[in-house]
Design brief:
The longest helix is centred in the middle third of the chain and has 5 residues, at about 45. The protein is built from 1 helix and 7 strands. The strands form 2 sheets. Strands 4-1-6-7 form a 4-stranded antiparallel sheet, with no helix packed on it. β6 (about 80-90) and β7 form a beta hairpin. The chain has one domain (about 10-100). It is mainly beta and about 100 residues long. The two termini are about 25 Å apart.
Length: about 100
Amino acid sequence: MPEGSLNVLSPGVYYVKSEDNSGGLFLMDPRQGAGALYWPTNAVTERGAINIQPRPGLLVLFPSWLEHYTDPNQSDDERVCISFNTHFAKGEDGLQQWGLV
């Protein structure tokens, strides 16, 4: 089921290990009618969704407002990925800093 990431600057996933048919990462624009316009510089809004096939060493960062989900792993091997969220937080000096959670 698609989900969004509220109160997050940018979610991401890093693929450590994956094989063919190990399940794609789908990013979907939740805005109604987003796929109706053609914007060649933005693959997500061009079709309303994009399917990213994992491969070892791939790092994917995306805006938190995009809905996303992963297809099940259909390969005979395990898929290893590290998913994370980035946030702004106040540092010791009181200024906002970027970090991972």
